[in-house]
Amino acid sequence: MLNRTQQRLILAVGAAVLAMLWFAGNGKDQGTTDPLNDEAASEQTPASQPRGVPRNGVLDPVSIDPARPADRLPEYQADTILNDYRDNGGAADDRYRGSYFIVEGVASGVRRDENDAVYLEIRSSDPNQVVRARLRERQICGPGTRSCVVEQRASMVRRGQKVAVECNGAGLVDAAPLLVDCLVRGGAN
Length: 189
Prior knowledge:
Layout: H1 4-26, H2 39-42, E1 75-77, H3 78-87, H4 89-96, E2 100-112, E3 118-123, E4 130-135, E5 138-140, E6 147-149, H5 150-154, E7 162-173, E8 176-184
């Protein structure tokens, strides 16, 4: 057991250490811009920075595919795409078909069709409707450009998990929006 003098000394040293840590962390010039909320800072990712590596816990809205330009991609929720097709199929086709964009939602499951194509089904607010994302055979499975086969990447996705895919819109097939050439983004790790 420590006597009263030793206890006070330990308390004083602990307080001094905490004060030094606080001053060291708060003494730095934090700048006046917030990179998460600054639109100009997030418009482009410099070519020197690797894609597919999360910054501040999220991926930048640029393609993780190194073969694509590092331009900012439009981001949509799966519900938005489904509702656009319900409201006006022609306008939705003009907006999504042939465009490359990011779709976010909650995974309903991973399925394989009769042609051995692997689909990620993304849940919508309608329990009977999903947005189907046909996955590429080669996926980006790690930081940088480490690739793997679709089965390895699809096995990382769990039902009920938030997911994001980047895809080309392919219209409406069997009353469900179809996305093709999809890469599963970092949310499935």
